[in-house]
Amino acid sequence: MSDPIVILTEEPLGADDRLNIERLVDGSDSSLVVLVPANTERHLLVDFLENLSMLDVAKAFRDLAGRTPDDAAERVHADETLAASLAALAGLGSGVTGQVVAGKAVDSLVSTVKESGASQAVVITRPHAVADTFHTDWANKAQDQLGVPVLHLYAGSGFIGDS
What we know:
By secondary structure, the protein is α/β, with parallel strands linked by helices. The chain contains 7 helices and 5 strands. The longest helix is centred in the middle third of the chain and has 19 residues, at 71-89. It is globular and about 50 Å long. The mean pLDDT is 81.
């Protein structure tokens, strides 16, 4: 049996993501472990600047004026993200499992990789202009803490992040 592959995602995985992971598995019997953070730990100012950099001015101001995130709503969203992701990856490798993780997403990824003996980790996110530009995204943080490759993919595309 091949080493597991640990996947951290903030977005529900879909058909394009399945294709990318299928290419990574490449017919092996690696098991897949999907992690979805209960809270993505986003910061209001960073999100505001990110929305502006993506030329989404309306969303930037809407989010800035928005309410404080509701923990229960975030948990429901994380559960839905996990369910969709597990369904999207069903049948790959020797099986797909997953969980919603509390606390810092990167810490959960690092501990799961170490506990499972995984030889590969994948981080799937939407583009984050500020974090990606300054190499403070989850993939770079995980790469700094692990001795295994960390592949950074952008959700729903074939684009690879700069890790």
